[in-house]
């Protein structure tokens, strides 16, 4: 006969056992870290901070946001993949999570992590990226920008959060469709790239709408187009690339929470329940994300897993088209 301990272990692994029976009734009993694999100011950070504040009210514990930047998101993401699978370390990831291992392979390196080391918990936001230029620039439309780029191949710069990051892939989709050659300037995250654009040391940038919205409203930046199928709330006057005749230029920058794969099912469920609760009921989180131009687009469970799998496959194909970046 199976011992009671063996039965409990099997049921717990299958996620069929109540949390208390698994010995996790007191979880969390200490602070829970939320890792952002980019510097402050980018899309993951903009989502993580109000989400962490809301989670503190649900968990009853501190949820510090830790920015662990480096290698376009690889350093922070790999640290979560290697973290103890106890639920006390989570990753607020971008869509680049699934791209970076393939980029490492293309560069002839062993990936620091693979996507199968993570358990997808929930998606929080999903926004089309928006193409930005300084308000003082001569480009008032995509047509102006493309015409100038064709006259001066390689002279106009665009920034990104690093080679093969979401911002790099988005711009590569556009430049390929428009048949133009821009100079890529990688940064250590979307925040520093946005700072460079604001200072005038960078010519253009694909950005999540959240970090860009206030700067556009203040007249410091100009939005030329967006990568969505529909126009973005807050950017209603900005056409999509699809409207401008580029039906293949469609891209979304999303944020989602991931845990190390071996995290016990009851703890994963506790995270999922907490995230669902704050996304459905926390008015402070809703207001913060809407004010930032990134309304909640919640998904969980099999729906999010399928979205993550399909989106990753699409982005990997785009990265393979970009090829090796010296």
Automatic annotation (TrEMBL):
Domain of life of the source: Bacteria
InterPro entries: BUG, Bug_dom1, TAT_signal
Keywords attached to this entry: Receptor
UniProt-listed Gene3D superfamilies: Bordetella uptake gene, domain 1 (3.40.190.150), Periplasmic binding protein-like II (3.40.190.10)
Record carries keyword Cell membrane: no
SUPFAM superfamilies: Periplasmic binding protein-like II
Keyword Membrane appears in the UniProt entry: no
Pfam families referenced in this protein's UniProt entry, alphabetically: TctC
Family designation: Belongs to the UPF0065 (bug) family.
Name of protein: Tripartite-type tricarboxylate transporter, receptor component TctC
Lineage per the UniProt record: Bacteria, Pseudomonadati, Pseudomonadota, Alphaproteobacteria, Acetobacterales
């Amino acid at each position: 006969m199976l011992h009671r301990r063996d039965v409990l272990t099997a049921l717990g692994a299958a996620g069929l056992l109540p949390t208390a029976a698994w010995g996790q009734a007191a979880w969390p009993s200490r602070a829970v870290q939320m890792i952002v694999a980019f510097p402050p100011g980018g899309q993951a950070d903009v989502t993580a901070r109000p989400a962490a504040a809301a989670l503190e009210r649900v968990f009853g514990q501190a949820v510090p946001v830790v920015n662990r930047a480096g290698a376009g998101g690889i350093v922070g993401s790999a640290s979560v993949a290697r973290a103890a699978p106890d639920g006390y370390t989570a990753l607020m990831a971008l869509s680049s999570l699934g791209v970076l291992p393939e980029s490492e392979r293309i560069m002839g390196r062993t990936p620091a992590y693979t996507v199968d080391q993570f358990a997808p918990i929930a998606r929080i936001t999903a926004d089309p990226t928006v193409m930005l230029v300084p308000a003082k620039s001569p480009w008032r439309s995509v047509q102006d920008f493309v015409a100038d780029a064709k006259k001066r191949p390689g002279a106009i710069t665009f920034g990104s959060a690093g080679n093969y990051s979401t911002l790099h892939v988005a711009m590569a989709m556009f430049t390929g469709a428009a048949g133009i050659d821009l100079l890529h300037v990688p940064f250590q995250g979307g925040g520093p790239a946005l700072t460079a654009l604001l200072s005038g040391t960078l010519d253009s940038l694909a950005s999540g709408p959240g970090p860009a919205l206030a700067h556009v409203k203040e007249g410091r930046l100009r939005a030329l187009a967006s990568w969505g199928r529909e126009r973005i709330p807050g950017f209603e006057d900005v056409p999509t690339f699809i409207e401008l005749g580029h039906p293949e230029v469609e891209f979304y920058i999303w944020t989602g929470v991931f845990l190390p794969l071996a995290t016990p099912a009851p703890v994963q469920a506790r995270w999922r329940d907490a995230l669902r609760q704050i996304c459905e009921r926390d008015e402070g989180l809703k207001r913060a994300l809407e004010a930032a131009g990134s309304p909640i687009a919640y998904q969980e469970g099999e729906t999010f897993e399928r979205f993550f799998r399909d989106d990753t496959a699409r982005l990997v194909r785009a990265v393979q088209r970009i090829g090796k970046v010296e």
